[in-house]
Every structure is written in C-alpha cells, then in structure tokens.
Design brief:
With 236 residues, the chain is an alpha/beta fold. The protein is built from ten helices and six strands; from the N terminus they run E-H-H-H-H-H-E-H-E-H-E-H-E-E-H-H. The chain has a six-stranded parallel beta sheet with strand order 3-2-1-4-5-6, with helices on both faces.
Length: 236
C-alpha cells in the first residue's frame, strides 16, 4: 500500500503571522524611556536587525548604563514576553493553519525570537495544536540569508525539500529559503514599497492566497515523489 508523501510548509513569524517587528520597536522605545532616552533613537536601534541580546549590549555601551548586561537583558526580555503574548495573529493565520493540519501538512515556524517565547504565543492564541516545528533564534548559528534556519526546519519535518514550501516577508528570508532548496512564496501586500524579489519567488498579496495550495490532494507513493524530484532537477 502506498503511503502519502509527507509535505511541509514553513512560515516566518515576523511580519507574516503577526506584526512582531512593530512590537520590537515599541518594546525598545519603552526600554529606552526607562533610562531617559528619546523614542527616536530607540526606534532606530531596534530597526537595525540585531537580535535582542545584541541590541541590549549596544544600548548599554552607547548609553553608558551601569547595570550588568544580564540584568538589562532580563528586563528587556520581560517587556518583550508581555508584549508578544498580547500581539494578535494576522486574521488569515487560524484558517490557514487549520487547512494545513486537515490536509496532512507538517507546519513549522521560524522566528527571530526564542523558541519558548514563540511557543507561548502560539498557545496563547490557540495555534499551538497545529504547529509541529518551531525554530527559534537560540538554535541558529548562521541566520538568514544563510540557509541554516530552513535546513533545521526541513530536517525536523522529515520532508523532502521538493515537497516543502516557505512563506517569507523579507529578501533575507526568501534568500535563506531558496538557498535551502525550497519553493518560496513572498508576501508583498498591495501598496507596499516594491522589493526586488529573487525571480523564483512567487508573490502573494495576502496569506489567504495560499489556501488553494494547502487544499491540494497529497501526492501518493514513491513513484510520484520521484517524479516531482526529477522535475525539480530538470528545472534547476
């Protein structure tokens, strides 16, 4: 008897499932205000793309803060934990996740924050039951655009890269997914400033455009899996 070939879909958390980038800016402004720093300079620092521990270390050095780094980091992490838990998911997320689960997809989340924080957010908003894999920032040595985050997720899924999808909202994320060999969707909402996406990326204006992809019947049997892999190699 042929078994269904396993499929996987991986979502970037930041800017795809929720506006966590906006939360990061707000948390850093709150953190800065506690030390008498202007919101403008705090927002600029939060936008530089550094992980939270590095941002806090930069702030300590730039602002001449006397507190120990671990104390400052715990303070920042507490603010971030509270803010992220209250952050609502995008409206399309729950039905998309339910469709993925219903149709046998392995579902993974890649986040620029700690995996425990991400899992707490998923549980808080009733999404944890759908998610099989979470790759947090503490598990990655070489972040995006390097392929490591997606290679980790792919290995945990047990899925062939030919049957895996990535959904990204940034060039770095798209390049990471492509470098890992995944078919990649780029979220580019209407009215957003144009981005020079790599040519293989398929653009969508909203997450619910993924629903037909998730509702497709599963491929069955080794023969069909090999056919898909041969087609991908021919295109490459």
């Amino acid at each position: 008897m042929n078994r269904p070939a396993r499929r996987a879909i991986f979502f970037d958390l930041d800017g795809i499932l929720a506006d966590s980038e906006g939360v990061s800016r707000q948390v850093f402004r709150t953190f800065a205000a506690a030390f008498g720093r202007a919101a403008e300079s705090a927002e600029a620092a939060a936008l530089d793309g550094s992980p939270a521990p590095i941002l806090v270390a930069k702030a300590k050095r730039a602002w001449g803060l006397p507190q120990k780094l671990d104390e400052l980091t715990r303070r920042y992490d507490g603010l971030m934990d509270a803010a992220l838990l209250e952050l609502p998911p995008a409206p399309a997320v729950a039905p998309l996740f339910a469709a993925a689960s219903r149709n046998g997809w392995k579902l993974g989340i890649l986040a620029a924050t700690a995996s425990a924080r991400t899992r707490a957010w998923l549980v808080r908003h009733g999404l944890g039951q759908f998610v099989d894999i979470v790759v947090g920032s503490e598990e990655v040595c070489l972040g995006k655009p390097a392929p490591e985050p997606y290679l980790i997720a792919l290995a945990r899924s047990g899925c062939s890269r030919d049957l895996a999808l990535a959904v990204e909202g940034s060039l770095a994320g798209a390049r990471s997914a492509l470098a890992a060999g995944l078919r990649t969707f780029g979220l580019a909402p209407t009215g957003q400033e144009p981005v020079a996406w790599p040519e293989p990326v398929r653009l969508i204006a909203a997450l619910d455009e993924l629903m037909p992809e998730l509702d497709r019947p599963r491929l069955r049997g080794v023969r069909m899996l090999r056919h898909a892999q041969a087609g991908a190699r021919a295109l490459g």
